[in-house]
Amino acid sequence: MSLSDINAGVLGVGFIGVAHVEALRRLGVNVVGVVGSTPERAEAKARATNLPRVYASLDELLADPAVHVVHVASPNHAHVDQARAVLAAGKHVVCEKPLALTTEETSDLVRRAEASGLVHAVCYNIRFYPLCHQMRAMVEAGAIGEPRLITGSYLQDWLLLATDWNWRLEPDKAGSLRAVADIGSHWLDLARFVTGRRVVEVMADLHTLVPVRRHPAGPVETFATTTGDEDLIEERMASDDAAGILLRFEDGARGVLTVSQVSPGRKNSLTLEVDGSDSSVAWFSEDPEQLWVGHRGRSNEILQRDPSLVDPDVRGVIGYPGGHVEGYPDTFRALFANVYADVEAGGPSPEPTYPTFADGHDAVCVLDAVRLSSDARRWVEVERSTGGAGARAASR
Ligand code: SOE
């Protein structure tokens, strides 16, 4: 099957659902339809943003034999049942992060996905900034020596005000962790992808810095602001606006991660630095075309994203020549290009560079340990058994 014969449907018409549709269209995949939280909302969004046909429900989308791949871009709590239904219908699935709310759910999804022979991916798109692939290639080739210190942050400000609102603030939809699950999990996935090392133990301090919020009765889209004219409902908050997390990686590397969605001026700001025994590499998502390479005994370097300057294996994720700046939407295009190469081939390749359901499960295992560590105020070991035992307090 060639790319232009593949039909995709997208579940979710919010900020991220629309990003999926745009990236698929750039690749030449036919997006045959979308499903929204209600048909009315989906119709309105479809008219405003030129989306294709609106299906009345996921069942209607799944019953369409023309659909080969379904993208799940709905709120977190819906992922597990929707991804199960997509697999049961024999269709390939691309799911937004976090894959599900608990390790029981994610391990069940891994089992089903692996048994199905279908392509399964989780949308940790930040890996697909070309210079993140370059960092990984450099670490793998030993260019920085042994990675020893892995540090950084993921900061935003769109939930700073007490009147900022979104489903991510509702634990029944988002899960008990918020900023760490929503954006911290991107950083954790990236750190693992770049260094090839898994987090084995965490010591986390979760903060709720805006303890009371006021919100309208209806939904507010991601990154949108309320008008202030609505009748507002007051609500006490328990989930994390911000967190500080100490990390221990396998092979002994240590790390520190700061996460916040209440940092004024930080719009969508991820930094990752890997300090090795010989050199360091550092990358910043709001200046994504440059990779800093640090040395002790000679001048530091800036590597620009340019196909002729990067590792040959990285060229495949670059869409434009150097100087033609690539950014956030391009990461979805590059991620989906890899996923759809497997769809074209009929099933998952043995070692995909895109995140699979197994990576989605791994991320939720780390999130579980973060929550337990903050509650227990101690180091917690990451429990990865696929039986979904969660995490247990490490003996210290
Ligand atoms: C909101 O925090 C959000 O849209 C995340 O959900 C995405 O995963 C991230 O890429 C951008 O910010």
Q: What are the key terms here?
A:
2 domains; 396 residues; ten-stranded mixed sheet; binds alpha-L-sorbopyranose; single chain; Dihydrodipicolinate Reductase, domain 2; Rossmann fold; six-stranded parallel sheet; 18 strands
How would you summarize this macromolecular structure in one to three sentences?
With 396 residues, the chain is α/β, with parallel strands linked by helices. It contains ten helices and 18 strands.
Total count of strands: 18
Kindly report the average pLDDT value: 94
H/E series, N to C?
EHEHEHEHEHEHEHHEEEEEEEEEHHEE
Report the uncertain regions. 387-396
This entry's quaternary arrangement is single chain
- How many structural domains in the coordinates? 2
Q: Approximately what portion of the residues adopt beta-strand conformation? A: 15-25%
At the fold tier of CATH, the topology name of the largest domain is Dihydrodipicolinate Reductase, domain 2
Q: Given this structure, which CATH class of the largest domain is correct?
A: Alpha Beta
The CATH architecture of the largest domain can be given as 2-Layer Sandwich
